[in-house]
Design a protein that fits this description.
Blueprint lengths: L1 H20 L10 E11 L3 E6 L2 E15 L2 E5 L3 E7 L5 E12 L4 E14 L5 E12 L13 E7 L7 E8 L1
Length: 173
């Protein structure tokens, strides 16, 4: 019984010391490392209409390319971006599901969830927010398995010279 109490007191002491050592805000800020850029070709969007969850819009993904420091290939035809808009039109949840194929023939599944928000800041000025968090599912025995074991964030980039959407993706280190 004495050993059990002593052990519990030691655990409690360690927890209290760790609580006192924490700082606010934290000193360690996660770093980002550029992973890849996706240049996604899309087709004409179509609406499912107003559903019990909101206005459903589907944007077919028809292809494209991607490239990063250690990965390159094509975006396969057949995926889609499934968007769900709020009743007032200010917020859209998106979930794009598609596959990519590396130049050396490895297929990778992508599920990219995000938020688009058109709102106003504290001064009443219009704001625009569009961020997403892609998840990659690569073969565990491939040279791309690193995609399975990290978190990623992305944001869009629009250019007049490209008919589609460009997504810049960073790995959270």
């Amino acid at each position: 019984m004495f050993k059990k109490r002593l052990f519990m007191m030691m655990v409690l002491t360690i927890c209290l010391v760790n609580l006192q050592a924490q700082t606010y805000p934290p000193k360690d800020t996660p770093q980002l490392e550029f992973a890849l850029q996706l240049r996604v070709h899309i087709d004409q969007a179509y609406s499912v209409g107003d559903t019990p969850h909101g206005k459903r819009l589907v944007i077919p993904i028809t292809g494209g390319t991607f490239e990063g420091p250690s990965i390159k290939g094509t975006i396969l035809n057949g995926g889609a971006d499934y968007q769900l808009g709020s009743a007032d039109g200010s917020r859209t949840e998106l979930e794009a599901i598609y596959c990519i194929r590396t130049d050396d023939g490895v297929n990778i599944h992508v599920r990219n969830r995000g938020i688009i928000y058109n709102g106003k800041d504290a001064n009443g000025q219009p704001t625009f927010y569009f961020k997403a968090a892609p998840q990659f599912e690569a073969p565990a025995d491939s040279r791309y398995a690193w995609l399975n074991n990290a978190l990623f964030v992305c944001q869009p980039e629009w250019t007049k010279s490209f008919n589609g959407i460009v997504l810049n993706v960073w790995k959270v280190k």
